[in-house]
């Protein structure tokens, strides 16, 4: 059927010259027949949009839509009807909202989304630029004695702590007067450089494991390849991507304990 014939046929149906029109699913789209009072859909169901469009085909008051098909189709039709009703409800609710308020909300939403996108892009950029393959030595800020390597540091939430086995031999500790618990971590004591003795941070207990949480301001970092020394106030500024504590790190804690237990008295 050519488009001209299609248009003519449709016009004749609209004018009432044809009383019935048989068509494929194309009949649900973009055809407007105000006087049509019954639509029979045979073995066909699309989605809720089709449903609404089909309803548009039969806009006459009291018009009927009949769906013929198997149970699966019936189920789909019921879902479509439900979704279409939700859509009508949402649209009518939207109509009741003041246009200015909608515009204002939209603008706020857009600004917010743009801001988020900007932050995300900047963050990704910053993350990439500070990532370095070079390991860094973490040195006591006052006496230069080495604490550990930055590759021995792991992140757990906002805390950065050392997982190097020999780290406890480089510090002295003092118990905390009033141990504080937060985020599942108990502040047990303070740790100091064994040599000078600068305050290096805190010793915390998490599920029976000692965590040596470094106070970054008390250290300087030396790039092992270039020898460049830097100081940072925030871990975010450290040119190394400190990994989160992973499952693979856990044996390091336990190996530590078993080796201590196995060592001769
Ligand atoms: Zn020191």
TrEMBL record:
Pfam families linked to this entry: Helicase_C, RIG-I_C-RD
Residue ranges constituting the Helicase C-terminal domain according to the UniProt record: 1-98
One Gene Ontology cellular component annotation held by this UniProt entry: cytoplasm
Top-level division of the source organism's lineage: Eukaryota
SUPFAM superfamilies in alphabetical order: P-loop containing nucleoside triphosphate hydrolases
Domain spans labelled RLR CTR: 126-252
Name of the protein this chain belongs to: RNA helicase
